Amino acid sequence: MEDNKLSELYESVINIDKNKLVSYLKCPLCTGIFRTPFTINECMHTFCKSCIFKFFHLNPLKDYCPVCEMKLGGKPLETLIFDHSIAVLIEILFPEFEVLDKEAMVINIFLIKLKAFHDFFISKIFFNFED
Ligand SMILES: [Zn+2]
Ligand SMILES: [Zn+2]
């Protein structure tokens, strides 16, 4: 596809009513926008990676799609494929997701440091008491 045709396509995707598109980008398990979309190869239903992995891990006897209940032949995890096109679409529509992920990581690191400081401080107090 020519470059300008490709950019026209992106334009049309961006100009589509976001609310309408969002309804196609919602995970049926958590009802949020797909986070790392994975699609079941057999029926093409899509879920967040963590949602569908959790579904199969917590229910080892369930080897069917949680939406259409199509049987997946005993190895449901093998039917999952990363859905690159949906991931790209979400990246275009919701660039703030990446920022949120980074913020969550920074907060996690801060909490780990705080915990380490707290533990260090507590051990100091006990040490002083023993003195
Ligand atoms: Zn989900
Ligand atoms: Zn399905």
Task: Walk me through what this model shows.
This protein starts with a helix and ends with a helix. It has two domains: 92 residues, Zinc/RING finger domain, C3HC4 (zinc finger) (Herpes Virus-1), CATH 3.30.40; 37 residues. The protein is mainly α and 131 residues long. Helix content is 57%, strand content 8%. The structure holds zinc ion (2 copies). The site of one zinc ion has 7 residues, from strand 2.
> What is the count of helical runs?
5
The helical percent reads 55-70%
Average pLDDT taken over every residue: 81
Main sheet, how many strands, which sense, barrel? 3 strands, antiparallel
Q: Runs with pLDDT <50, length 5+?
A: none
Radius of gyration: 22 Å
The second-level CATH architecture of the largest domain is 2-Layer Sandwich
Small-molecule binders here are: zinc ion
Number of strands: 3
Alpha-carbon distance between the termini?
76 Å
The spatial strand order of the largest sheet comes to 2-1-3
Question: What keyword list fits this structure?
Answer:
131 residues, mainly alpha, Herpes Virus-1, three-stranded antiparallel beta sheet, 57% helix, 8% strand, flat, binds zinc ion
Question: What order do the helices and strands come in, and which of them pair?
Answer:
Elements lengths: L2 H13 L2 H7 L12 E4 L5 E3 H10 L21 E3 L1 H10 L2 H35 L1
Antiparallel strand pairs: 1-2, 1-3
Bound molecules: zinc ion (2 copies).
Task: Produce a short descriptive summary.
The protein is mainly alpha-helical and 131 residues long. The chain has helices at 3-15, 18-24, 49-58, 84-93, 96-130; strands spanning 37-40, 46-48, 80-82.
